[in-house]
Amino acid sequence: MKHHVMDMTVPQLTGALAELHQPPFRARQVAKWVWQKHVTDFADMTNLSAGLRAELAEQLVILTARLAGRSDASDGTIKLLLELADGECVECVAIPAGDRLTACVSCQVGCGVGCSFCATPLDGLKRNLAAGEIVEQVFWLQAAASRRVTNVVFMGMGEPLANYDATLAAVRAMIDPDRLGLSARHVTVSTVGLPKQIRRLAAEDIPITLAISVHAPNDALRRRLIPLAVRHSLADVISAAKAFYQTRHREVTLEYVLLSGVNDSPDCADELAGIAAQLRCNVNVIRYNPVEGLEFSSPDDKACKAFVERLGRRGANAHLRAGRGLDVSAACGQLRQSAKHQETTR
Q1: Active site residue 111
Q2: Which of 136, 177, 134 is CA-nearest to residue 154?
Q3: What letters, b where the CB count within 10 A reaches 16 and e where it falls short, cover 211-224?
Q4: What average pLDDT score do residues 122-134 get?
């Protein structure tokens, strides 16, 4: 079985090349081609001999997925469907904003959280991704957008903290100066709220941003929308978030998807403001991106604005996040579901 370069640190790559009787500087050359020049084909590594390039291609692999689908939105958002080596598919999204290009990456095939308004869990959780499978999504998105990624958010398919070890290994690859070299402050890990893992993340020596998908301001409604929330009360989640801030001194982001007639009432805004008052946090209010076949819909512009303004009047640092890729079904799981539908109707 070939070694996946995206799964390896530079010292590990050095060890792999040592098995091919290659000196350490060869590993540094390969690492520079991959991580700094973003070359993903050994044949293009022109300062290596043709024989060595062929030998490396037999023993190592840089990209393990293939492009299975692409959707381009009018706002510049690009969504890719990647088919993994075992035939499973995941999605990732490139979101341009001025000088920034944000990569939204997936960490699992499917999802076990079961949010009732999301397309990702419709087929359940298939498996976790390896760290290299997460990292290579950044390379695919850079190639699609023809520019370098500056920010990464773990907000694609899956629950990052349910795949903790691979998520952290991928984060370390992204912020390693000898690999992707991104600023840790430009990497955001989003979780539905797993208190034990949040506390574990707080102990890691990495100043990343933590985002918590709240989506409801009380336990009763949250458990209706997020079945996994039955295991963890909001109080436990907020307590863990406080611990994260106290240890890392990084403000937490609370994410709240607005669902028309479900969680967008004035009372919900007041309860959410009460939660925000307990933390050093920002509140990202997100307009729902409707999923075909699900009962939920997005509030209109007036309702969204009123909700955010009410949060602000009650002291919350709240923002309405602009919807992106709405014309190409950019919400999690939608492109994958569309591809599966096309397969079954052929």
Answers
A1: no
A2: 134
A3: bbbbbbbbeebbbe
A4: 94
Smallest CA-to-CA distance from 289 within 276, 277, 304, 271 is with 304
Length of the chain: 346
Domains of the chain listed by start with CATH number: 3-61 (1.10.150.530), 66-344 (3.20.20.70)
Instruction: Sort 74 into a burial class: Cβ within 10 Å, 0-12 / 13-18 / 19+.
Output: exposed
- Identify how many contiguous H helices and E strands the chain contains and give both numbers: 11, 14
Q: Identify the pLDDT of residue 105.
A: 98
Mean pLDDT score of the chain: 92
Beta bridge partners of 210: 189
In the annotation, is 332 catalytic?
yes
pLDDT at residue number 1: 78
Residue from 89, 91, 104, 107 carrying the catalytic annotation: 91
Whole-model pTM: value is 0.92
The amino acid at 83: E
The one catalytic residue in 92, 107, 304, 332 is 332
pLDDT greater than 50 at residue 340 = no
The alpha carbon dihedral of 261, 265, 271, 276 has a sign of positive
